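One-letter codes give the sequence; the fold follows as tokens. Both lines appear below.
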Amino acid sequence: RENIYLNASILGFKKKEVDEIFDDIVEFASIGEFIDTPVKHYSSGMFVRLGFAVAINVEPDILLIDEVLAVGDEQFQRKCNEKILQFKRQKKTIIIVSHALEELRTLCDEALWLHKGKLKKSGRAEDVIDSYLKEVYLNEEQLADGRAKQIGEYGRRWGSGEAQITKVEFLDEEGKKKTFFKTGDKMIVRINYKTNKKIEKPVFGFAVHTDQGLHLSGPNTRLSNNTLDYIDGEGTVEYHIKSLPFLKGKYLCSAAIYDYSCRHPYDHQEEMHVFEIADGTIKETYGVLHMPAKWEVK
């Protein structure tokens, strides 16, 4: 309780003025039952919520916000966004320091991109954020290649060995090897193999799992009516994905060669390969898949 009066007095408000908005501050911060608890016992989130509630209820002309958008539950964050948009409609000056990029797209007209204390770009919020994400994607793509090599050393592998998968590669539509894609990108999965004898009617399979183990997809050549008469020696089989439906995350992949009955494994590599997905033009964040669809209002 005392901290509300202290914070407001620092902002130039008298006790009588704070009394008039006290209940609004407590209600906005959603800490009513803890209002008389010493602030030293507050979590960092509760402390920031209380400070933000004071700041916005004293109706400032200039509002400076530092990472508040990442604090609190969904309901509190919605209240923050609604209040900021209200100030924006009132033509107040708002400066937000945040890494919550999608909220910055919604809330801000202009943006500054700072890196190690230096200005890298300024301008329209959309343009600055897109430039920032482009650089992040390039850096993450390099890191993803390293993680792919590391994860490829794990997983499980079994099979009789007459045919073996020698390499699994992920290619973009231009045939460039990579392990970092965006939702909606085209992808080619190239499975390299070799045999030590002629294998008749083999079945090649590929599967995608989340990094939590959820099995998302498991196509194979037999189910797709792509029967191979035989394989002998070395070769490649490719699986072409027109548009990756997966949302942002890391995905573990399995590759396998079975006999035509799909009961005898020549080589089964379970979750030994990995690719990663970043946000693309599709901005969905809930779930793991994007469904190609559209909204119609009638």
Remarks:
- The chain has a mean pLDDT of 83.
